[in-house]
Structure formats: C-alpha cells, structure tokens
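Ticket reopened. Same input as before:
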Amino acid sequence: MAVSGSNDDPMLVKRRSVFRDRLSAALGLPVKLYESSDYNGVIQAISSGQVDLAQIAGGGYANVDAQVGSLVAPILTPRQAEGETGYYSALVVRADSPIRSLADMKGKSLGYVDFNSTSGYLVPRAKFREQGLDPDTYFGKTSFAGGHTQAVMALANGQFDAAILQASGGDPQQGFTRGALYTMAGRGFVDLKYFRIIWTTGPIPSEAVIVRTDRPQAMIDLVRGTMAALAYDEPELWTEIGQLDGSAYTAVTRDHYKDIIALRAADIAQRRGTGGRP
Amino acid sequence: MRRLHAALLAVMCLMTSGAGTPSPFLRVAAISGVTGPCEAPAASTPTGERAYYDHLARRLNAKVLRCPVVDAAAAAKSLAAGELDLAVLDPSAFAPIATTTRAILTVRPKGGVNRIPVVLGVKAAGPIKTLADLRGKSLVFGGRTAAALDLPRLALSQRGAPMTFWGRQDVAADGDVAVAELRANKADAMVLHAAAWQRLCRQNSPKLAPPCADLRIVSRMRPQATRAVVVRRDIADETRLRLIGIHMPLHLENAAAFAWATSWAPDAAEFEPAEALALVATR
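Engineering reply: fixed in the latest deploy. New output:
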C-alpha cells in the first residue's frame, strides 16, 4: 500500500498503519506500507504495479488513469457527515496582507503545492481560467512549494504573497477544520489568526483508495470492506487516524473522478503549449 | 505476489456457517411467508433476485442458497441456530438474538446522510448527567439540515426523548450559535452531529485551552437502523468484510441486484457498513 508522506501531518502516515494492520489481519498476509515523499512516488508505484493499492488525491488518480487506464480503479472515497464527498481549494494570504481578493493578486507571487496536487494546482488553475484569468500570465511569479506544509511555511515566511491550499472539514460558509493550515495550527507551528482565506473553489472530489484491477477480485472486495467497516466498528480510532468525525467511506468508480481526469488532460495539453512552466 | 494470490484463493474459499467451520455455502433468508429447504434460486426466480444471488455467488466463489422462511422472526431464529448465514432483520426480530448475531450493513436513503453519530452536550458545571435528567428541559439544535436537525431528532426519539420530552426546542443557525445559547443558559442542552461537534471542539493550538472544556457529553449515538443485514457473530471476519465490500458498490455494479437486495428500503441509494448493534437504540 502506498501513501504520500511528509504532507501536512507526518503522524497521518504513521496512523495509516492502522489500515495496514487491519488489512493484514483480514487478508492473513503481511501488508507493507510504502511511504513516498511526494505525489509522484505513489503515482509511479501503483502505475507500475509495485504496490497493490494506494490512497491518493483525485488529481493523482487522474495522472495514474492517464498512464495505465483501467488497470487501476478507485474503490472508496470519504463521505462527510453532511453528505459531501469533496473538499476545497483555498487561496490564502497573510492576515496583514493588503490583498483581499483574486483581483488584488494580479502581478503578485503565488505558491502552488505540487504539479500532481488536485487542490493545490490542478483545480484552481482551471477555475482561474474559467474566471477569465490566465494562470500562466496573471500572477507575477508562480512556483511549486513541494507540499502543503511547505506552502504554509513559505507563505508564513513571506516567500509568496499567497498560496493555494487544501481545506476541508467544512465549507466556505461555516469554515474549515482540516487541511495543512489547520493541522499545523493544531500542532502549534502557526497561528490561524495570521492567515486569511480570500478565495475558494470546490467541492473537489476527495481522495480515493485506488487498487490494481489485475489483482484478485476477492482481495479488492476484502480491502473495500475492511477499510469501510472501520468507521463503524471503531469510530474513536477512525477519528484518531485523521478521518473526519461522522465521515465514512463510500464506494466509487472512475466516473466519480471524470471531471478531474478531464481537467488533468486539459492542463497537460495547456502546459505543453506553454513550454511546461507552472 | 504469487503468495498473495494463493492466500487470496484460500480466502475466497473460506466461508463459514458457524463456529469457524468452513462451508462452501452462503445461506440467505428469503422472507416469503412459507418455509422450505435452502436451494439454489430456481429458473423462475425473478430477475432481480436472481441477479443478486448470482452476483454474490460469483464474488464469493461459493454457492449462495435461497432459504424460504415465514417472517423476520423465523429468519432470526434460524440465523441464531446456524441454519442460515445472512438475513435482513428489523429491531424487533434482532432483539432476541443480539448477543449471537450482528448487523453488518444498512442502507443510506437517496438524498440522505449516513447514520452519522450525534452528540448531546450540556454544561459540565451543571447537574445533568444523563438523558433522563433532561426531561422537560430546553434543547438547542445546531442547524436545519438533515444532519443537524432530522437525524438528532430521530436518534433522541429512538432513545425515549421525542419532541414532547423536551420543555422547549430551539433551532440555531449553526453549532457556534447553539453553543453560545447553551453557555448563556438559554438552553439546557445542545445536540450536534459529530462533525459539527468536532468543528466546535477541535483544539486549534496546543497553547490554547480546550475549547469545550466547559461542556460535558451526555450521549453520543447513531440513529437506530430500521432494518439491517445481519450475520452470526461467529462468522469469519474476512467473510463479513467481504460481504461489506461486495455490497457497498452493488448500486454501481449491478442495478438489478441492488434494487432487489434493497426492496425493503425503496428509497435506498447505497449500502453502508453498520456497527454490530445498529438495530439497537439503547446503548
């Protein structure tokens, strides 16, 4: 099983060992957890068949789909308490910044998360275009922070005027509770009062549990059942490992991510037309 | 990977009918008003029902047998006796066999939310310790959505606290307003769904005091399921988990089988896993 590590909460990857242990008990086999330092490591591991399953954001799955098509399929995604199966992308500035809106960002510097990040790159760029902004020319400078945590720290340190971050556990009306900013605040690394969200887009289809479809169907069914049962069998453990309270897994197919897959294809085409700059 | 495949083949063959005894059969209760022997579905079996049995048989690599029983109570009795492996039961049929069987699946209704937990809270400094202590007291809800209002009302009603139990009920705009009312003594209790409680009480900085240190959780409860797929507790865990894993995407993979399998819940959108006592409200 592959997971992306070194994200907003290193403990999250450690906590995913809970799934490893559950799967190992259910399968009667040792299950190894492969931690990749970036999204691409997970993408390549599952695409090449080095791992059997992975947890990955929609944009990452879109990249896998582009490489191997139906050899990999999503089987589960989190469904939140209010029924949402998505999260948000938030444009965040420091609270002392004069920037109040996307319009104020013209000529300013923007930090994306990673080329393979759904909320930190893929979706916001598409939404910028929908709003008539060319993300390749509208901002004065753009670059990749390398991860959500790095994006928060770069913003806090003044390297960017704004950063695009994932936000979940709520919505723009009621506020958010999850995402790098909130996790880092919870751990005492930053203080929420020093940041301001000025723009959001979403909901974006949440991360998927994806599997190699050339594995036995019995294994796929067992993985799906084992991971989905945890929210009901052990609700306290479910929240301890970073899942939102009241959330649960729901079954999905490729169709759930078709818009993200189309966005990824369009963005790749766009990048090829502009020399591949972020 | 060869070892994995071999082990999974072993898993595929591992169906139990009680006490860990391997069995190549899965015996499903068919509540039909008549009693009969367990048999493979006949050629005359309706299309949807046939599709369900075929789907399960293919995915479990086992014979799935249709076992006619008179009613849910008879299904429960046969299930507990080890004469069946799976039945759809209601709370009254489940109650006598709750210690030897367990729920594994319920359904989420179309446009509805899962059976999410709801949290009933009061001020920690007050005298209220149990739900019973709140009879005649005032209650504030944290919103008007299905998750914020309908589900808590259902869960409370199922535990003996319907609308008439309360002295006064208020519906606040959201959890923040609701907790403000509780803290201002404008309400004696507050009920939120689990995610709203988490949003409210999440500690955003270790330097700050826990935001809900002044509150006490009186009860945390899921709404009681009206029906659930039930198996014996001694069923092999991998069998239980595979049944969950097979049923969850049924609406996406086999519409006819799903429609028949959820004919007891015509507005079903999908199967969702269930805790062992999903059919019991008093917990």
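Residues 2-83+206-268 of chain A form a domain with the D-Maltodextrin-Binding Protein; domain 2 fold (CATH 3.40.190.10). The longest helix of chain A spans residues 217-233. Please confirm and we'll close it.
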